[in-house]
Protein 1
Amino acid sequence: MNGTAKGTWHAPGRVNLIGEHTDYNEGFVLPFALPQGITAEGERRDDGLLELHSGGQREVVELDGLAPGRVRGWAAYPAGVAGALAEAGYLVGGATLRFTSDLPTGAGLSSSAALECATALALTGLYGVKADRRELVKITQRAENAYAGVPSGILDQSASLLCERDHALLLDCRTGLSAQVPLDLGEHRVLVVDTGVRHSLDDGRYADRRAECEKAAGLLGVPALRDVEDLAASLSRLVDPVLRRRVQHVVTENHRVQATVGLLKAGAAPEVGAMLTASHLSLRDLYQVSWPQADVAVEAAVTGGARGGRMIGGGFGGSVIVLVHRDRIARVRQAVDEAYAARSWRPPSYLEAVASPGAARLS
Ligand code: ADP
Ligand code: MG
């Protein structure tokens, strides 16, 4: 075995610049990795147990007989990775894993994928198991879907495992193929506004959206909404106004991802702001997954001088991103703070999203 008795691995959270609710429709997304993430300090052990520590909590899981549904709560994510590795034929044994995080949880910055990806690198690293990153994307996604019970696409895990510094990742969620897109924002910055509202992806609303999209694709006779070519003709074939709205969002959002890549390649980063705002309005009015604090943050930020902004993540809580000239960050923050205060909402928290490297071994 070429493993290592102990080591430390880090997996980042992510911001998805654009392409929301397109991943499970086999479309396109454009995430980049954050400097913030989850670190796993790992040590091999030979008793077949997975001992997991995080934030003062300790969970012990037996690897033998690990199956979806056996482990609940936060430990389902790392245990799910061990289970999914075994299912895929990658034999890893017991370990003690100590997690530390500087990523807010449930903020739409993908702490769950960071937890899974840090675990995947730690377990494969400790046991000298060679699995390529694309394979690990599938394994960590399986952990989230089957073991944690969240029916998410490959966006978050791909971002954590495949992103590179100063680049966004253009990911085709149908093929899993990706391309690095240089993210040169010039004097502009991406500011994350954590609205403080917490979502739960397993509360059913996310699953509802997926089911609506599948139904619409079935009615339109296409494998996935990614394949809708003539939007107007497709909309006219759908009777249900709800399904029409969902389709319109997914199709136009895929176009916005491509347009954003075009703007970045043309050195027109500030114009990405308009794409972000268009995405937000579509998520608010057509896909209907935004929440009041996100709507107010986007509106106040734009009024305060930002180039644009949008909610990120599955919806109903989490964060907003805003594209803003660095000299206007303070003004935009003040505008958002004031808009929140006027509604007696708790002030949001902020972090600057700097495109950072993907998951890696630290020591
Ligand atoms: P997001 O991925 O946007 O942060 P999710 O709801 O997908 O939100 O995942 C959050 C869940 O991931 C938490 O409820 C917890 O179960 C798990 N999690 C994230 N970070 C940690 C951590 N540092 N320690 C333990 N569990 C964590
Ligand atoms: Mg998550």
Protein 2
Amino acid sequence: MHFVADPATSQNPYEYYEDGALLVGSDGKVKAIGPASTIISSNYQAQVIDYSGRLIMPGFIDSHVHYPQTEMIGSFGQQLLEWLNTYTFPTEKQFSDKTYAKGVAKTFLNELMRNGTTTALVFGTVHPQSVDALFEEAQTRNMRIIAGKVMMDRNAPSWLLDTPATSYADSKALIQRWHKNGRALYAVTPRFAPTSTAAQLTEAGRLLQEYPDVYMHTHLSENKGEIAWVQELFPSSNGYLDVYNSFGLSRKRSVYAHGVHLRDDEFASLAQTQSAVAFCPTSNLFLGSGLFDLQKAEDYGVHVGLGTDVGAGTSFSALQTMNEAYKVIQLHKAYAEDPSTREPLTALKAYYLATLGAAKALDLDNKIGSFKVGNEADFIVVNPNATDLLKFRMQRATSIVDKLFVLQTLGDDRAIEKTYLMGKRQTVTTGTTGGYNYD
Ligand code: GUN
Ligand code: FE
């Protein structure tokens, strides 16, 4: 099962074969999909692996996540700004030690594999070695990862600050070392407007001018206190997004996490610049940030991908992230002035946001996110009957769409039976950090 178009606008957004086959070439790319009988009979020399009763779909794409925050998921009691000071900054301090960073990178990538996430757009820390550690670990798995060194030169503890000059030089060296090195891609990563001076955002804009095909990745309009603070720090700006726009940071391959409190003109501006938003429901609920207006983003034509935002997000599971996204949209309807204008989030749209939709948001739909011939064969084998409750409930799920909805509601890493990268099966050994083997 995979998507070929956005379910919000297309009558036939997906392809599904009850008894289907995915043919992968020796180059790790998709050669064909279709009915199993046709594919197998016309490729008699191919090795056949039988996953009857399972669902094969493209690997999930996490459009926003912080690998250094893996060890602080579920930190109690605070909203964004206090949470950063109390938990996040002390945790990120440890990543000056590359050996430490490597250990966490291994655990992080194991969690992605376990949850069927085959690509992620990832925050490192301010330390360039944190990004080397992640890319090196991703490279041993041949995994498509987009990541960057955090740029932050104010409003955080001194041990977590760089300067405009060092952030430019360190980011540039990382771009030269990693961007398009194997499957790695680089993202220029100012943390968010409050932790960068105008001088540093100028340097971020300069990097994007010099390297137009790298990504830009930051946070935007997550929390009301944060938005007020941005207005104090940049008093002449016309709102939060305008700060980034004025430094040339909004364009294709620019990804803004959250966008919970965007104004209408800001949605219009994001669409106009072809920027994307990462919708991070578990994080927005956990930190009490607010409810992202997916329907409005869609109306304005803004690209959206689904993000976990671990460690403010509470799960690495794309399925559980869809589960919470559905509930956020339910609350939108409950609080709408005119509830009749609000539609529930369909299962098709939810899976789209974690696969082809995210790939489009990341300008990677010619490489990942669907089983288009020639795409990289990153895929997962899902067991819709992985738990007793799933099995029990699935008996009443008749259509593929029903099954997908039950799976996102009840499923998690237990339902992800196998994860493949470029046609190679990955295995993760439970209970060991870095206990990772190729099959
Ligand atoms: N805004 C700035 N930094 C962060 C972070 O680490 N997590 C989240 N959720 N928002 C941020
Ligand atoms: Fe985040």
